[in-house]
Amino acid sequence: MAQIQLAGISKSFDKTEVIRKTELEIEDGSFCVFVGPSGCGKSTLLRIIAGLETASAGEVRIDRKAVNDVDPSDRGIAMVFQSYALYPHMNVRENMGFGLRMGGTPKAEIAARVTRAAEILQITQLLDRRPAQLSGGQRQRVAIGRAIVRDPKVFLFDEPLSNLDAELRVQMRVEISKLHKSLGTTMIYVTHDQTEAMTMADKIVVMRAGVIEQAGAPLELYTNPDNAFVAGFLGSPRMNFFKARMAADGENVATLPDGQKVPLPALANPPQPGEELLLGVRPEHMDSARADARLTLPVDVIEHLGTTNFVYATGPAGETVVVEKRDHADATSHVHCMIEVTNMRVFALTGARLR
Ligand SMILES: Nc1ncnc2c1ncn2[C@@H]1O[C@H](COP(=O)(O)OP(=O)(O)OP(=O)(O)O)[C@@H](O)[C@H]1O
To answer: Which residue range or ranges hold the ABC transporter domain (predicted)?
Structure first.
């Protein structure tokens, strides 16, 4: 197990800075997920930790020792790639033991480690097959097995599930979480899928354009986002944002574009009178008896999911999603959206959270 620190890490490719002065601490034994839109720098940061990419500035520390000059193979790290990267001419047993064989581990030791890893991943019956004779999910297990046999201090996963179909993704997600529980090893996992991040992580690191927007426990980020980007990125369907204008007379009330007034939660640093704001309300906080403001919106589409319905309507700020628990949604052409003020998040137009 190992603790990882990134101290002032920056990275440029041909003068373009893709990672900017990153500070991060990943606790020993934790499951840390880097999440963010395509191109935000998640894989680059992971590759810097692995030593596959050199940082332009800053220090990578493993267990408080700088490893910038340590070879990838000597960092005690094993990486699992999206592409699996299995050797097609070798069977599963040989693929899993290959790295150890190259490192000069005795044959008997390799055999014992491969057997144990295969048992953990329940692929013992596949050990004599070649990659072409395996399904996508089985190949992914072999790739993880190859990492396990190395008994690393840290596992790095780069979008390991993106080649799998939706059902298998969910299954493998649970398996990787179980693996983390049973091994207790530090894991860092890159994905652009916010559901994977929310369900797997002890700590989520939300990135945008080479910068960490916020890092913390999933529920902390979900309920207490620092800015509108994090608030909008985590959660499905995503948070609704309404443009509104703070009252000019000092009252703690904002006006929506359609003229309706919405009371605001008490804020330690309230907005300026007349300031334009973004009010963020999650879909599940728009169908409640404890509502403080009511919007009646024309319904565009209703998605029936069994116990709940997602109702898509057009609100004063564009598309609005409401989670309806009751089953009357399809009988109406309009939906009544209730805004719970205690669960509303208020942002400046810059996206910064007002608290
Ligand atoms: N070897 C390279 N040379 C030049 N630019 C690169 C190189 N590798 C990555 N980049 C650029 O760095 C930025 C970050 O890329 P990176 O692959 O880390 O993003 P990502 O968040 O992992 O994206 P994705 O989810 O699409 O994989 C991108 O703009 C990418 O084009």
So the answer is: 4-234
The three-state (H, E, C) secondary structure of 226-282, written as one string? CEHHHHHHCCCCCCEEEEEEECCCCCCEEECCCCCEEECCCCCCCCCCCCEEEEEEC
13 lines ligand 1 (CB under 6 A): yes
Note the pLDDT tens digit of each residue in 30-58: 999 999 999 999 999 999 999 999 999 99
Q: What CATH number should be reported for the domain whose range is 4-232?
A: 3.40.50.300
ipTM of the predicted structure?
A: 0.97
Q: Is the CB of 42 under 6 A from ligand 1?
A: yes
Per DSSP, the three-state class of 283 is: helix
> Is residue 74 classed exposed, middle or buried when 0-12, 13-18 and 19+ CB atoms within 10 A define those classes?
exposed
pTM: 0.91
How many distinct helices (H) and strands (E) make up the chain? 8, 20
Instruction: State residue 96's pLDDT score.
Output: 95
Strand 345-348 vs strand 334-339: parallel, antiparallel, or unpaired? unpaired
